[in-house]
## 1
Amino acid sequence: MMELLDYLGTAEQAAERGVEVIRAGLGRERSISGKGDRDFATDVDYAVEDAVRAFLDRETPEIPLLGEERGRSGDADSPYEWVLDPIDGTINFAHGSPLFGVSLALMRNGMPVVGVVFAPMSEERFSAALGHGAALNKQALRAFGPSDLSEAVVAMGDFSVGVDADKRNLRRLASLQRLVPKVQRIRMLGTAALDMCWLAAGRVDAVIHERINLWDVAAGTVICREAGVLVTDLDGVDYGDGALSVLAAGPDLHRALLTELA
Ligand code: IPD
Ligand code: CA
């Protein structure tokens, strides 16, 4: 059985394959396929997923994989699972914004234990393995955020699109209404994976996603936790497979936000 640090090395090599595909595609015209109301993927999203899948199928054939664009494959009974977002921040990528990244996590019994998020445009490689710390370009990360809401920069997820978007956005609007008068600033970066990494790096102080998919935040969850950040859902339950939302912040700020949003 491989150790977590071995898996981290494998994850880093796999994500690097994805970065190579993105670099090769930069500046080329992109074909875009619609996935639903204002939701789409580019040909690069698929190409990145295929490259990372091919690498992981070769290196760890015993571990199943869940990818945003191609779904689930492999042994459904394994306690491990790779979880991949080939491009987190697809809308940013398609608009020429540099805020996007390849996000790859390894889950063990439903909890993320290894995470890498590579942001090709800034050449930033965030990584972590449970019990082994978090790093940005191999430099250790430790988040020291404020405790008070008034000093906090809070990153929030996108507004919903698709079925029932209006209903779901009422809750986001209510959260904003509560937080805007109290926090220092609100940010909406458009990439949940980098929201989490930026929190681990102290560039924002909290992350709130009212509704989020596992592939968007699984890697960022390990990176945050290893940097000393508390990651739960909006009910305060430890974030893991099956959670629908994310609230991440240092312990004091987390408590204040949980109370504010209750
Ligand atoms: C999206 C981003 C965004 C979040 C959305 C996600 P995608 O992921 O992470 O920040 O608010 O909920 O769908 O579609 O760019 O992979
Ligand atoms: Ca994506």
## 2
Amino acid sequence: MKNIVLIGFMGVGKGSIAREILQHSKYMTIDTDDLIESMENRKIKIIFEDEGEAYFRKLEKNVAKWLETSVKNTLISTGGGFYKQTNLKKIGIIVLLDSPFDAIIKRIKEHPNATKKLKKRPLLANLKKAKELYDARYPEYLKLADIIVDVTNKNADTAAKELLKKVKKYV
Ligand code: S3P
């Protein structure tokens, strides 16, 4: 099985869908943010505060190299900026979780842990800037995607099933 690489904007549901896939398929899952937090033994928010974004992006690059050479049969959930890695296509099939900006923010705000979810993402602190980031990234996400799954108003279970069905044609 080829790796599946989940890309998409912060809060779109990459983590929730990865958890569903872990339960309902043969894929193991890895999350690039979790890997970075383990490597650094501190939270992403703290890494941004202490070292700045550029340092975080270097860590993402190291993770991308490792994924390319060492990981197989895995669903890889990525941070919203990980798509910039130049070897992304070599890591696996790219699946974009697609949803409009307003729907993503609504989804986060309606979550029981909304405050925590917003706090842990430094790039969501300012929603006007976050929308600009979304608009800049969106065409790039589309260009990279082998498969697009529209996740708007879908629960993780439905989206995961749709994803696995679409991926079958590629593996
Ligand atoms: C980022 C997204 C975050 C995390 C970091 C930067 C981004 O991951 O990697 O805060 O640049 O979009 P999620 O997409 O899981 O929120």
